[in-house]
Prior knowledge:
- By secondary structure, the protein is α/β, with parallel strands linked by helices.
- The chain is 46% helix and 15% strand.
- The protein has helices at 2-19, 35-51, 73-78, 111-123, 169-177, 191-196, 207-212, 238-243, 246-254, 258-280, 291-311, 315-332; strands at 22-27, 56-61, 84-87, 134-141, 146-149, 163-165, 181-183, 202-205, 221-223, 231-237, 285-287.
- The strands form 2 sheets. A 6-stranded mixed beta sheet has the order 7-6-8-5-9-11. A 5-stranded mixed beta sheet has the order 2-1-3-10-4.
- The relative contact order is 0.17.
Amino acid sequence: MSIIRTITAAALALAAGTAGAETLRFSSFEPPVAHITKNILTPWAEEVSAASNGTIDIQMFAGGTLGRSPAQQLKLVEDGVADFAWIIPGYSPGRFTQGTVAELPFMVPNATVGSEAMWKMVEDGYFTGDYDKFKLIGVLVSAPNFIVSRIPIVEPEDMKGINFRGPGPVMLKAVEALGAVPVGGITGPTIADAIRRGLVEGTMTQWAAVETFRIGEVTDYYMTAPLGATPMLVLMNKAKYDSLPDEAKAAIDKFSGAAFSERFGKSFDAHHDAAGDREAATGATIVKPDAALTQRWKDATQVAVDDWIATTENGQAIYDAFRERLDAAAAAH
């Protein structure tokens, strides 16, 4: 009987702790089965909740249930509609501008190295301003974006005169440098429809997005020179974080920052590579540039690098610091 009473008491205590937990809302514009939401964000939320000693319960609101557009996610956090959100800062031009260094062509080799370097930039004080307004859970980058199109594009000259989508302001500058007509404002979930309707001939993106947003259904050609990564953020409303008990803050802190960068980068790269293998199996035309072709794309996009350095406050210092941290992270892996 004493054993039964002990078990019952423990169960009641656990239930009371769960019932007393403050529910926090985590917004994702992705479907709940998409890789980042299912395999990175949701397990993170569960682990933090479990580590909080019953003080918080982080609930995922996927599929745009708090706001459907990727461009809405930042405002959801600012307004307190969501406590956390996964955010693509390129959809909010003029915000988080220092982190757009990751969009520069031929910088980021993969999400693991890039995300580690991005967090080091935060730790070392290079990313400020907008970054200081939030509790930073993760400051991240995708694997490199490349050319995905419904027409063959191999040489830089093949871009001339066509409408082409870029996922952020720096990559749009690179599109312009290549002689194409840069088209912004097309979010990930609407890329395939824009290509299908002929609004653009293609986009800069990476394998995970090709699969998640079904872009491969309307494209047949891929040229995989690394033309810049997509910066990403996982942010928390700072006032909400500050209002939480110490146990909740400690749980969030434990799984954020460098730990989140490592979690995100490794998972993203594994999924990215597997998605590329699946797309290759469909018979799509995939061009992997040799050294000479790579150099031609570097030369053609260098103006975007020069422009970013010249027009960004402390641009040269940020560029050099990011390059150093990328090299250090690459050496460590």
